[in-house]
């Protein structure tokens, strides 16, 4: 059974996003405790309101989706082997086809990403308790 850990606020707005109608956000998090070598951990991004995930990195490395379908708004990235004790996820979101506007956050380290996407870790463990 998978355990879901939401990466809720605060996200930090990356003000260096140069593309029009896009923005980038950063969130730092710790490795979930109690993971075994057999546990699988996914990073899941569910876009909302017509927003679209453009790119995503974990600890500086570009991630490719393990599960997604063109036209769907949910993406999963298997990250078990990439997790470190302290982690940083960076993502770029497009609002081009969305009715949502770009975030206007002051200060930039208090971004509530929930209007554009929900990000979570999914921990799948086959261990029996």
Textual characterization of the structure:
This protein is mainly β. 0% of the residues lie in helices and 43% in strands. It has a domain at 13-31 and 40-97. It has strands at residues 2-6, 12-14, 22-30, 40-47, 52-58, 61-62, 74-78, 86-94, 117-124. The protein has a 5-stranded antiparallel β-sheet, with no helix packed on it. A 4-stranded antiparallel β-sheet has the order 1-9-4-7, with no helix packed on it. It starts with a strand and ends in a 5-residue tail after the last strand. The model has no long low-confidence stretch (mean pLDDT 82).
Q: State the separation between the terminal residues, measured CA to CA.
A: 11 Å
Q: Please give the radius of gyration in angstroms.
A: 15 Å
The amount of helix comes to: under 10%
User: What characteristic shape results from the CA principal axes?
Assistant: globular
- Give the averaged pLDDT, no decimals: 82
Could you provide a short overview of the structure?
This protein is mainly beta. It has a domain of 77 residues.
Characteristics:
single chain; 129 residues; mainly beta; 5-stranded antiparallel beta sheet; 4-stranded antiparallel beta sheet; 0% helix
């Amino acid at each position: 059974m998978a355990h879901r850990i939401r990466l809720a606020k605060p996200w930090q707005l990356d003000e260096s996003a140069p593309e029009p109608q896009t923005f980038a956000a950063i969130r730092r998090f710790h490795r979930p405790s109690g993971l075994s070598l057999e546990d699988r951990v996914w990073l899941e991004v569910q876009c909302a309101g017509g927003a679209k995930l453009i790119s995503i990195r974990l600890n500086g490395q570009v991630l490719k989706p393990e599960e997604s379908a063109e036209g769907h708004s949910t993406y999963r990235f298997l990250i078990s082997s990439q997790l470190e004790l302290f982690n940083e996820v960076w993502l770029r979101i497009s609002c081009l086809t969305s009715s949502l506007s770009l975030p206007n956050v002051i200060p930039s380290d208090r971004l509530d990403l929930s209007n554009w996407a929900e990000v979570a870790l999914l921990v799948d463990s086959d261990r029996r308790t």
